[in-house]
Amino acid sequence: MEIPDRLIAAIRSARHLVVLTGAGASYESGLATFRTPQTGLWERFRAEDLATPAAFQRDPALVWGWYEWRRMHVMRAKPNPAHFAITTLQALVPRLTVITQNVDDLHERAGTHPVIHLHGTLLAPLCERCREPHVLPREIPEEPENGRSVPPPGCGRCGGHIRPGVVWFGEELPRHEWESAVRAAASCDTFLCVGTSSIVQPAASLVERANEAGAVTVQINPNPTGIEGRLSFALSGPAGTLLPEIVRQLQLA
Ligand code: BJW
Ligand code: ZN
Predict the structure, then answer these.
(1) For residue 189, how many other CB atoms are within 10 A of its CB?
(2) Which of 21, 74, 154, 220 is the most exposed place for a label (fewest CB within 10 A)?
(3) pLDDT, tens only, 101-135
(4) What is the sign, positive or negative, of the torsion defined by CA atoms of 103, 107, 111, 114?
């Protein structure tokens, strides 16, 4: 797909560019999205059974086993050209803020720092009772059979269950990260939504804040999301192709 010249011009003159990523940004690294028909995690598993505090209370081993399976995939995955292009963007604009809904560490492994993690991370579990962080073994977990129950470790301090360090439905986003994201969205001049269905709140409201602040707003996604009518540009295609192409055009004299 052609990248409009007006978009390249907008990014070239941007003083503060915000990139918000979702599961689609890691899809080309082999990690499943949540809502893609057939392959999405929520097509195969019920979010109510796995990604809520009530689910963990009901069956901690089922939930912990599922997240260990996800963590194994993340640790075996590698950043893709979309992650690397975002890292290169850091050098091409005066200020770049990267906000992700993803619970993997692929932006960091591609060299982007800092990254605002709105939904936490699979790699920093903690005690559900006293919030004490839990240090994970460094080795990649063995392939746990998908869906196999694995009892969560006990907290060394209080004996409570260790839970994944992610944000489940009905839970508040980490306050500091959310406030930083809102500040960035409200003060940027260009806002890119990459690989997100823009369904889950409050993350999906960030692009609206950028719109209200008069920013140029852009979506990069091979599929429609329904918010196209409210954006300045909607680019249809995979992030691993379109982002490197944007970077290439920005680097042309
Ligand atoms: C490509 C590509 C390629 C493919 N290149 N793109 C009713 C109305 C409004 C709100 C609510 C409501 N009922 C409940 C709520 C609140 C709820 C919510 O928003 N629910 C919606 C489903 C409606 N939100 C919350 O509960 C949040 N907390 C909250 O609101 O707190 C306040 C509060 C507290 C108490 C009471 C009430 C309010 C917390 C949300 C936490 C979300 N957690 C998850 C799981 C994290 C842990 C884990 O990984 O398991 O976060 S859910 C899941 O969705 C995950 C993601 O970060 C998040 C967003 O998904 P994302 O990234 O957009 O992925 P997909 O799969 O949806 O989309 C991928 C896209 O990529 C697609 O568009 C593809 O086309 C595209 N793609 N290949 C580029 N190559
Ligand atoms: Zn504890």
Answers:
(1) 19
(2) 154
(3) 999 999 999 999 999 999 999 999 999 999 999 99
(4) negative
Q: What is the pLDDT of residues 58-86, one digit of tens each?
A: 999 999 999 999 999 999 999 999 999 99
Q: How far is the CA of 211 from the centre of ligand 1 (A)?
A: 20
pTM of the shown model: 0.97
217 lines ligand 1 (CB under 6 A): no
Query: 74 Cβ partners below 8 Å, 6+ apart?
Result: 31, 103, 104, 105, 106, 122, 123
Domains and CATH numbers, the chain: 1-31+78-120+172-253 (3.40.50.1220), 32-76+126-163 (3.30.1600.10)
CB-ligand 1 contact for 171 (6 Å cutoff): yes
Active site residue 117: no
